[in-house]
Amino acid sequence: MPNTSSYIACGEGDAAPPARAQWLALLARATRDELDDAIARCPDAPEFVWLRAPQTGLVMVQGRVGGCGDRFNLGETTVTRCTLRQHDGVVGAGYVLGRDAERAARVARVDALMQMPRHRNVLAAGPLATIAERLAAAAARNDADTAASRVEFFTMVREA
After folding, report:
1. H-type helices in the chain, by residue range?
2. Quick one: average pLDDT of 108-131?
3. pLDDT single digits (tens) 29-43
């Protein structure tokens, strides 16, 4: 599970909206319903054309020895990607793990909308905050499950 510190807090009192890399990380983990909710909050969204229609392929996943050592190829995973351009010129990109072309298209759409100042604050304070809260709660549950199974080892020394 990803580190919970990487999730953004998108409350109404936040001074700055999330950076693009942060919102794309959240959108890649969002459900279709969460993405549909985000799109529905922007009824005046411009029309768009596909620069790259959703397509599925493989990418090599790398790991690191001990988490920070030498890199090694762990294996391949399936990724779906797409790119669109709104008629106002804004370009949105969507990448998701797996073969879900519809979800990748929704991610690209919300990415483009997040780049528009009039939509950014509404989306950051609403749907993106909800996604971040869900992911943080899931990470906390995972951490609690892991902690519950932790075994503490100790050594007793006998004196002669």
Report:
1. 20-28, 32-40, 101-114, 117-123, 129-148
2. 94
3. 999 999 999 999 999
Phi, psi at residue 130, to the nearest 5°?
A: -65, -45
CA distances to 34, 48, 64, 101 from 52, rounded to whole Å, are 23, 12, 32, 12
Judged against a pLDDT cut of 70, whether residue 13 lies above it is answered with no
> What does each C-alpha distance from 142 to 93, 128, 132 come to in angstroms?
30, 21, 15
Q: What is the DSSP string of 66-110?
A: GGTS-EEEEEEEEEEEEEEEETTS-EEEEEEESS-HHHHHHHHHH
CA–CA dist 57, 72 (Å, integer): 20
Q: 91: burial class by Cβ within 10 Å (0-12, 13-18, 19+)?
A: middle
Tokens of 117: 């100042």
d(CA 12, CA 58): 38
**pLDDT tens, position by position, 55-95:** 999 999 999 988 788 999 999 999 999 999 999 999 999 99
Given the structure tokens 């397509």, which residue do they identify?
55
* pLDDT more than 90, % of the chain: 75
